[in-house]
Amino acid sequence: MDNKNNNIILSIQDVEKSFPGVKALDQVSIEIERGEVHGLVGENGAGKSTLMKILSGVLKKDAGTIIFDGAVVHHTSPVESQRMGMSIIYQELNLVHTMSVGENVFLGRFKEMGGMRGTHTKAKTLLDSIGANLDTYQLVDELSVSEKQMVEIAKALSFESKLIIMDEPSSSLTQDEMDKLIAVIKQLKEKGITIIYISHKLDEIFELCNRVTIMRDGHVIDTQLTTDITRNEMIAKMVGRTIENEFPERPKCDGEVLLEVKSLNTHKLKNVSFELRKGEILGFVGLVGAGRTEIVRAIFGADQVKGHEILIDGKVVKIKNPKDAMNAGLALVTEDRKQQGLVLSFTVEKNVSMASLDRLSKFGILNKSKEKDMAQRQVKGLNVKTPTILTKVSSLSGGNQQKVVLGGWLETGPRVLILDEPTRGIDVGAKYEIYLLMKEIAESGGAIILISSELPEVLNMSNRVLTVYEGRITGEFDPLKTTPDHIMRNALGMGEEEQNNDQAN
Amino acid sequence: MTRQIRLGSVFNTLLKEYTIVIGIMVLVLITSIVEPRFMTSGNMINIMRQFGPLILVALGMTFVILAGFIDLSVTGQLFLVAVIVMKLIDPIGQIPAMLVGVAFGGLFGYFNSKVIIFSGALTQAEALFITYGLSTAYIGIGQMISNGKTMNMSIDLTSSYSMFQYVGLGFIGPFSISFVIFLVAIVILYFFQSKTYMGRSVMLTGGNKTAARIAGIPIYRSITIVYMICGIMTAIGAIVFMSRATTVTSAMSIGLETDVILAVVLGGTYLGGGRGSVLRTIIGALIVILISNCMNLLGITIFWQDITRGAILIIAIWLDAQKNN
Questions:
Q1: In this complex, is the C-beta atom of A362 within 8 Å of any C-beta atom belonging to chain B?
Q2: Distance (Å, rounded) from C-alpha B191 to C-alpha B244?
Q3: B308: Cβ–Cβ under 8 A, 6 or more apart, which residues?
Q4: What spatial distance separates the first Cα and last Cα of chain B, rounded to whole Å?
Q5: Which residue from A280, A238, A234 is spatially nearest to A255, judged by alpha carbons?
Q6: CA–CA distance, B227 with A328 (Å, rounded to integer)
Q7: CB B293 within 8 Å of CB B50
Q8: β-strands A163-167, A86-89: how paired?
Q9: Which one of A320, A340, A411 would you mutate to disrupt binding with B, by most B Cβ within 10 Å of its Cβ?
Q10: How far apart are CA A216 and CA B189, in angstroms?
Q11: For residue range A9-46, what is the model confidence (pLDDT) as tens digits?
Q12: Which of A57, A247, A497, B26 is 20 to 30 Å apart from B269, CA to CA?
């Protein structure tokens, strides 16, 4: 009965979009089948976000046709596209934090729902239908990122959306939360809802999607069944060249102890102690909120902590603030580069020089030519794609922004580089460059602490892995000799028994 | 076609960026045509004299705003410093009194910053309320010292106040003394902002406190320094102001904070911090003076002048927010 046309819910035909100096979309054509989960992958700047913004009505297309559910779309506003049955869940979720879960689901439609009681009842029904067990009276502010996503999904369902677009929904989820999201997406699929799933994480694409479209430089490179394409083929198409491996070979490490942290205690951390050796990459695995970030912030003096001891080369060092930490040879690349790593309205040059500013000054006067040299050195060395060093860092892509942060810290000549989610929201090419850089630092006698929610990343890059659960270190593993499952069990607090056995052996 | 669009958008940007400046130029143009007194040398000297105290305080305020904060206490500080200087002329002499006054300005700024840092929240809104409260307290202290009376140099002083007369009325070449003080200040402050470690630290603190702190930038020292600069500049402004008026009264600084913030924002320094320059504030202060001068010449009542100033401040902040969105 279904003819071919009826089977296509969204047809994008020859869509074009230009910005000053850039052709963001060039003859883009994609057909999305009704009821499928369609993956959309590509490096940052490939055109995915632009395309989504055109679909949602935030941007206007220059040329081409979009047919949604049999009707040509001319709309120009996000509200209209939502009414037609197309919802987008953005990476930065769009909720009112000071209102309850229920109110957020039916924001601005309380009357139609029959007042507050109706709003909460109906919100509960929607949330239950996707298996999200949330109290609709709870404030959104108190929810975790994954719970907020559930609220967004319920909101999308409340508009009876036929198509839900998810823009990198997993970028700040832990493995556990990710599993829940996957379950919800599968449920949505069963209900016949079509999903466009944008992600950098290829595992998810293979697990969730029926088909995948690969974009690069504003072009659609290919659309394939996920069963017909291999991981490496997909990466090759995304980056336009072949990458042999996603991860470089891990460096060997047999150096002496460089950093020692003893009995770190805060209201969140319990007796955290560990060692870091020269040439070592030490990975921290744990859920978001388990205390990984708190550990490194405490070591770096970013948060006020007392009573612990930090030794470098066997000597006790006092670290009361980030400046002390820098003097001791530490560097911290924070998890949130936009909020904590960069001054977005400043130039690349001023961001690179930020952490080295005191060394660039003599008697309090800045040496501008040295500053310029420094910025140019890092832009060249790290292959930062920026028109000039005087470009505002806010206009760079995520990967290039991260390189600016890294470049700034490299200039301080750190002995211990702490990386908190260094590759979040970064494309495959830039990721690999950052991995190579980590390897280089480790091989030249430095040491790295790596925090990442991407398990493959930690396991493939680290010489040694510590699991963190509820503020405690629950295990220490050699990733070559342990299965990922076993490590995850410890990160989820379920491995104490096994760990005891390990130690007994 | 494309070319036309591009020209149009350039024009649009210019219009957006300089809406207020253009509007005020029109006002000045109309005034100079309608009112022949505008272009007289007497009026020009008048403008230069009014420019003095305002620009001095505004330059200090620029740094506080660049660091992402605000200082409403300039109103109270200006009065209190003037009272202190006035009280000290007889016992310790004119020049020592001036120097002690400037030192007090720095001290008040230091105190302001410590209260703000101690409060811990470190937001512009917090600073707004704290300095507002401090301003009230400074006025109270000043009233206490002066017994709530207007102090008059020619009546209340037994010793000479010739130095003050010189600062208030004197000239070096074609420039009034207050203008010369301004020139010296702008050279020092511009150098500080653009060439020094602490100047950059201030800009970084205003741009993103969290990131700056993680990168080892002394954000607390930056906050203290900007409030001290603001205090010192306010104290110098107080001395110039009292020299011209030869009286000291709590009414002398009423509404000062509006004019000063107006000067900074009209100049184009971003109220949220991190972007702007002391050089821009010169234009802003000039505009503020021109507005009141033109309105005076056109015979607009003081009430309507206040309403206009308030409206311009709101529009300026609104446009500023639009630009940065």
A1: no
A2: 29
A3: B291, B295, B300
A4: 28
A5: A280
A6: 31
A7: yes
A8: parallel
A9: A340
A10: 49
A11: 999 999 998 876 567 888 999 999 988 999 998 876 67
A12: B26
Residues of B in contact with A323 (CB under 8 A): 216, 218
User: Which residue reads 């009357």 in tokens?
Assistant: A111
The verdict on pTM exceeding 0.90 is no
Q: Given a cut of 80, is residue A96 above it in pLDDT? A: yes
Q: Does B200 touch chain A (CB under 8 A)?
A: yes
Averaged confidence pLDDT in chain A: 85
User: Which sequence spans correspond to the domains of chain A?
Assistant: 4-239, 248-329+414-427+442-505, 337-413
**Percentage of chain A modeled with pLDDT above 70:** 93
Which residue, A203, A277, A232, is CA-closest to A39?
A203
Partners of residue A354 in chain B, C-beta under 8 Å? 204, 211-212, 215, 217
Whether residues B216 and A322 touch (CB distance < 8 A) is answered with yes
Q: Which of A329, A328, A333, A315 is nearest to A257 (CA)?
A: A315
Listed by number, the residues of chain B in 261-280 with a beta carbon closer than 8 Å to a beta carbon of chain A are 274-275
Window A:46-105, CB contacts with B under 8 Å: none
> Tokens 């700034």 map to which residue?
A408
Neighboring chain A residues of B210 at a CB cutoff of 8 Å? 339-340
Terminus-to-terminus CA distance in chain A, angstroms?
A: 65
Minimal Cβ distance to A355: which of B197, B210, B216: B216
What total number of domains does chain B contain?
Answer: 1
Q: Which two tokens stand for residue A39?
A: 């993956």
Pseudo-torsion of CA A450, A453, A457, A462, nearest 10°? 30
Residue A284, Cβ neighbours under 10 Å: how many?
A: 25
Chain-chain contact of A343 with B211 (C-beta, under 8 angstroms): yes
Please report the ipTM that was assigned to this predicted complex. Answer: 0.84
- Considering the domain boundaries, does residue B195 fall inside one? yes
Q: Are B214 and A358 within 8 A, CB to CB? A: no
Q: Is residue B262 part of a domain?
A: yes
Does A361 lie at the interface with B, CB-CB under 8 angstroms? yes
Residue B256 touches partner A, C-beta closer than 8 Å: no
- Domain A4-239 and domain A248-329+414-427+442-505, same fold? Reply is yes
Place of tokens 């102090």: B151
| Phi and psi at residue A457, to the nearest 5° | -65, -50
**Range of B71's domain?**
53-284
Please state the φ and ψ torsions of residue A199, each to the nearest 5 degrees: -160, 155
A332 touches chain B (CB under 8 A): yes
Q: How far apart are CA B57 and CA B310, in angstroms?
A: 19
Q: Minimal Cα distance from B9: which residue of A?
A: A20
- In 10 A of CB B308, how many CB atoms? 15
Residues 57..86 of B with a Cβ closer than 8 Å to A: which?
none
**Best residue in B214, B217, B269, B325 to probe A by mutation, most A CBs within 10 Å?**
B214
Q: Is A297 on the interface with B (CB under 8 A)?
A: no
Task: Provide, as residue numbers in chain A, all residues whose Cβ is less than 8 Å from the Cβ of B199.
Answer: 366
Q: How does DSSP classify residue A249?
A: P
Distance from CA of B266 to the nearest CA of A (A): 20
Give the residue on B whose Cα is nearest the Cα of A366.
Answer: B196
CATH number given to A4-239: 3.40.50.300
**How are strands ordered across the β-sheet holding A330-333?**
A330-333, A416-420, A447-451, A281-286, A464-469, A472-477
Residue A300 near residue A330, CB atoms below 8 Å:
yes
Which CATH number applies to A248-329+414-427+442-505: 3.30.450.20, 3.90.1010.10, 3.30.420.40, 3.40.50.300? 3.40.50.300
pLDDT class of A1 with cuts at 50, 70, 90: very low
Q: Round to whole Å and give the CA distance between A158 and A258.
A: 55
Percent of chain A at pLDDT exceeding 90: 30
Q: CB B213 to CB A361 under 8 A?
A: no
